[in-house]
Design brief:
alpha/beta, 7-stranded mixed β-sheet, single chain, 484 residues, 34% helix, 15 helices, disordered N terminus, globular
Length: 484
C-alpha cells in the first residue's frame, strides 16, 4: 500500500456495497493507483427471504473508510456503487421501516407473474421499461410488501435502492442514477422518466422516489459529522448499480463483451441502442453514462461446476479432454436458457468415460449457456471476433479460460484489476472533478489491462452436441417437480 506523497492527482473514493460486504478504495485520480482500502461485512438473513438492515451498510461503510486511514480525509470526491434491485423503505424520520428486501429475495414471484399480465404481457413491459421484470426487480418487491405488510408500506415516506440509501446518508438528499433505477421496473427507459401508470398499478406515490441525477452531475457534498473521515464539502457523484459500475471500471467501449464468472454467470456489453427483449432473457439496463447495458444472467456457473468436481472427488482443474458425454449443470434451475424447473442432466455416458471428462462436460455446459446469452446481448452488427473480457471469481481458473476460448473461438483478456465495481465508482468520482467520461478515465488507468490469451479454433462439434441434447431434453427438464 502506498503513502500519500506518491499520489499525482487528487484522491477519490470508490465504494462497492454488495450483498455481503462494503468495500472502499482510495484511488489516485491521475493514475488509478489504489493508495488505501478497507472492507467490512454485513449480515443477510437465510431461508426463504433475503433481507439486510441498511443501517449495517452504513456502519460497514464507516468501518471500511476508517480502515483507509487519513487518506480518506484527503479525498476530493466519492461515489457509491451498489447491489441492484434492493427495496429500502424509509420512514418520516429517515430510518428504515423494516430490513431491505434484497435482489435475491424471490418471495415476490407471484407478484411478478401478476404484474406481467396486468400491464399487458412481456412485450409491453419490455417496450416501456426495457426489461421483463422477474422477482428480483424492485417493483415486484414493493407489490409484495404492500400485499403482505401493508402497515410497513403505509409507514414508508421514501423508497430507495441500496446505493441511493448510502448516497443520501452522505449528502442528505434523495437521488439515484439512470443505471440503477433502470433495474426497478418503474422507470420508463424510452422517456427516461418514472412510469406513473406502473407506479399507480402498485400503489406507489412518485413523491416517495428519489430524483434521477444526470450522468456527471454533482449530487451534493458530504455533510459534516464525526462518523465519517471525509472532509466536510467533499463532492458526491451520483453512484450507480454494480453492473454499471463494473462497466465503467473496465472502461468499456460499445460492443466489447464481458463474461463474468461467479456463482451465477453474467454477460453484458455497452450499447448505443436501447434494449427491449420481450422474451425477458436480456435485461435492458441503462449504463451510468448515457448509453445502455443489455445484460443476461445464467444461474449456474462456478458453484455448479465446483459441485460436480466435489461429487467426482476431483480438484476443479482436473479436467480431461475427449469423450462424448454432455452435462447440463442446471443444478439451481436455469434462467438462460429459460428452464426454471430444470435439474442437472447427464447424457452420453460410456464405459470409457473418465471422471475428468465428466468435469470438463460440466464446464462446457455452463459456458454453452453463457455464450448463448452473449449472442442475445450483443448488437447484430457487433464484431464477433473481438476479445472477450473475462472477470469474476472463475476468470483466473485455467479450465474456465480454456473452455471459454475453445467454445467461443475468440481471444480472451483477463483484467488484472480486482475490485471493478469500486474502481468504476472511483472513476465516476474522478469524472465529476475533471468533467471527463468515467470510462475514458478507467481506460487511462489501464484497469482492463491483463494477459490476452490467443483465440483457438471454435469447437463446433461440442457446441452442436450440447445444443442438440438441450433441444431434445428441454421438454423433460421444464416439467415442474412432483408436488409443486
Amino acid at each position: 500500500m502506498s503513502s500519500a506523497p506518491s499520489a499525482q492527482g487528487p484522491l477519490v473514493v470508490g465504494v462497492d456495497t454488495s450483498t455481503q460486504s462494503t468495500k472502499a478504495l482510495v484511488v489516485d485520480a491521475a493514475t488509478g493507483q489504489v493508495v488505501a482500502s478497507g472492507q467490512a461485512p454485513h449480515r443477510v438473513t437465510t431461508g426463504e427471504g433475503r433481507e439486510s438492515d441498511p443501517q449495517e451498510w452504513w456502519e460497514a461503510l464507516c468501518a471500511a473508510l476508517r480502515q483507509c486511514g487519513p487518506l480518506a480525509r484527503e479525498a476530493s470526491a466519492v461515489s457509491v456503487g451498489g447491489q441492484q434491485h434492493g427495496l429500502v423503505t424509509l420512514g418520516k424520520d429517515g430510518k428504515p421501516v423494516r430490513p431491505a428486501l434484497l435482489w435475491n429475495d424471490v418471495r415476490s414471484a407471484p407478484q411478478a407473474r401478476s404484474l406481467l399480465e396486468r400491464l399487458g404481457g412481456p412485450k409491453e413491459w419490455a417496450d416501456r421499461v426495457g426489461s421483463v421484470p422477474g422477482p428480483s426487480f424492485t417493483v415486484t418487491k414493493w407489490a409484495w410488501l404492500a400485499e403482505h405488510e401493508p402497515d410497513a408500506a403505509r409507514a414508508t415516506a421514501a423508497v430507495r435502492l441500496p446505493h441511493d440509501y448510502l448516497t443520501e446518508r452522505l449528502t442528505g438528499l434523495g437521488t439515484t442514477d439512470r443505471g440503477d433505477v433502470s433495474g426497478t421496473g418503474w422507470w420508463a427507459s424510452a422517456s427516461e422518466t418514472y412510469d406513473e401508470e406502473i407506479l399507480g398499478m402498485v400503489g406507489l406515490d412518485p413523491a416517495l422516489l428519489p430524483r434521477v441525477a444526470r450522468p456527471g452531475e454533482v449530487v451534493g457534498t458530504v455533510r459534516g459529522g464525526a462518523e465519517l473521515p471525509f472532509s466536510k464539502g467533499t463532492l458526491v457523484a451520483p453512484g450507480t448499480g454494480d453492473n454499471a459500475a463494473a462497466a465503467m471500471g473496465l472502461g468499456l467501449r460499445p460492443g466489447t463483451p464481458v463474461l463474468s464468472l461467479g456463482t451465477s454467470g453474467t454477460v453484458y456489453a455497452v450499447s448505443e441502442r436501447r434494449p427491449a427483449d420481450p422474451t425477458g432473457t436480456v435485461a435492458g439496463f441503462a449504463d451510468a453514462r448515457g448509453a445502455w447495458l443489455p445484460l443476461a444472467c445464467t444461474l449456474n456457473c462456478t458453484l455448479a461446476v465446483d459441485r460436480v468436481a466435489t461429487l467426482l472427488r476431483l480438484d476443479r482443474e482436473e479436467v480431461a479432454p475427449g469423450g462424448t458425454v454432455t452435462l447440463l449443470p442446471y443444478l439451481d434451475g436455469e434462467r438462460t436458457p429459460d428452464l426454471p424447473h430444470a435439474t442437472g442432466m447427464l447424457h452420453g455416458l460410456r464405459h470409457d468415460t473418465t471422471p475428468g471428462q465428466l468435469l470438463q462436460a460440466a464446464y462446457d455446459g455452463a459456458v454453452h449457456s453463457l455464450l448463448g446469452a452473449l449472442d442475445l446481448v450483443l448488437d447484430t452488427d457487433a464484431d464477433r471476433s473481438s476479445s472477450l473480457l473475462l472477470i469474476g471469481g472463475g476468470a483466473r481458473g485455467a479450465a474456465w479460460q480454456r473452455t471459454v476460448r475453445r467454445l467461443s473461438g475468440r481471444a480472451v483478456q483477463v483484467p488484472q484489476a480486482q475490485e471493478l465495481v469500486a474502481l468504476g465508482a472511483a472513476a465516476q468520482a474522478a469524472g465529476i472533478l475533471t468533467g471527463e467520461d468515467p470510462s475514458a478515465i478507467a481506460r487511462r488507468w489501464g484497469t482492463a489491462r491483463g494477459p490476452v490469451l490467443d483465440p483457438v479454433e471454435r469447437d463446433e462439434a461440442t457446441l452442436s452436441r450440447i445444443s442438440g441434447v438441450l433441444s431434445d431434453a428441454a421438454p423433460l427438464m421444464d416439467r415442474a417437480p412432483h408436488g409443486e
